[in-house]
């Protein structure tokens, strides 16, 4: 009887151990170092994915990233990827999901997917914080009251390290060390502007020090300081323009709300990235309904809408 109990104990332990081992998990040196379940690497580098435990057979798959949820792109078996490890690189595999299917004895299982990401997803963008009542936007430029300041920030301060700030658009990319637009000593991820100019920056990533990005010309911000007629530092925010809608929260990581209660609904809402590409569109949108933007790549977007009486609104928001 004692021998039977010992045998059954070992049998059960073996069974549970087999089950425990048949839960493949992907690991790599940089997985999760910046974002959970993502490998972030430099464009010119490679990364080795592996399973935390060994199995009898392996088959690796990849799926192209899509801004939509759910992702309808198919999972495709990678030819020849049948070993415990898989090498991916920043040129061919960026913005793909990866998973591995394994077998062990009578067990078959798949790992949770991970995303191979890179700095393409996080191009730097400029955020400006104005003091309420001290500014007015006119045709994409900002008139700011003399004596006020504007806080300028890189929208990805954790991604980018050393910055070069400009008070005008530089003549080359990368900028020359003698570029006259460079603001001396301004190398942090923020800058406080108090004089007229067209502001922007060139920044190198901390993760990939040799990988640097320049803001596009369209992303520079034009500030005109002066004694404007609306200037009153004690007042609240300037009166909204007729073509502006309330957008909140802004910046946002998941949902935004837009609209005027007087409009009730909008036949069409379009979200456009800064390259001019339509990335999201909704029809028959109610002013108090949430718009899910969680699947959008972080950055600045234009949201264009048309009210039922024909008014067209264009506004910017930032996806964190």
From TrEMBL:
InterPro entries found in the cross-reference section: CHLI-like, Secre_tail
Secretion system C-terminal sorting domain: residues covered: 247-318
Organism superkingdom: Bacteria
Pfam families: Por_Secre_tail
Zinc keyword on record: no
Keywords attached to this entry: Signal
GO biological process: chlorophyll biosynthetic process
Signal sequence coordinates: 1-20
Protein name listed in UniProt: Por secretion system C-terminal sorting domain-containing protein
Lineage of origin: Bacteria, Pseudomonadati, Bacteroidota, Flavobacteriia, Flavobacteriales
